[in-house]
Design goal:
Blueprint (H helix, E strand, L loop, with lengths): L9 E5 L4 E5 L8 H10 L3 H5 L5 E7 L2 E7 L5 H16 L5 E4 L4 E8 L11 E11 L14 E4 L3 E2 H15 L1
Antiparallel strand pairs: 1-2, 2-3, 3-4, 5-6, 6-7, 7-8, 7-9
Helix pairs in contact: 3-4
């Protein structure tokens, strides 16, 4: 699954095949697919689309995707995470760093080209490989809830990630 347009603020960290994303999906009531789904559900499209204010974490790793909602998360929390990631990337001296997003998400970053990755793609502080540690919230109705997941990205160019972070932060302003 490739990163998909969600119609709201979205921050994808990774590649088409291995990523973690913070998204706040917004459905457009005028979208034909939304209108059809609303009709099938027997509700007006505006009600079906909802407020679009619930954040979610999406993951994709080795062809397996998933995700979970983050009820109660306000825009300030994903914005703070993105700002801290941006600050670490700007201040990075080519060494590893960690951005802690609380109990649900932690990113460990290391420069691409170290002995533990693909052997040099991107090189030094120009690119980083991220290991995302994701722990879905406990949900008594889901046997897999609360089970930690790990997603490792391929090398990501710092310049591209900084541009994505700026776009994400701008969408929250």
């Amino acid at each position: 699954m490739s990163p998909v347009a969600v119609g709201g603020p979205a921050l994808f960290i990774g590649t088409d095949t291995d990523y973690v994303a913070l998204v706040r999906p917004e459905l457009d009531p005028a979208d034909p697919g939304v209108r059809q789904a609303a009709a099938q559900a027997g509700v007006p499209p505006e009600e079906f689309a909802g407020a679009g204010d619930t954040w979610a974490v999406l993951i994709e790793h080795d062809g397996e995707g998933g995700g979970f909602e983050l009820p109660g998360v306000r825009d300030a929390e994903p914005a703070d995470f993105a700002e801290r990631l941006r600050a670490e990337l700007v201040a990075a001296t080519g060494g590893p760093f960690t951005v802690d997003g609380g109990a649900l998400l932690r990113l460990d970053a290391r420069p691409a080209g170290t002995a533990t990755d693909d052997g040099g793609a991107g090189g030094g502080a120009e690119a980083y490989v991220f290991t995302a540690h994701v722990t879905p919230p406990d949900d008594p109705s889901d046997d897999d809830a609360g089970t930690p997941l790990t997603v490792e990205t391929g090398p990501l160019p710092v310049a591209g990630l900084l541009a994505d972070l700026d776009t994400f932060l701008g969408s929250l302003a």
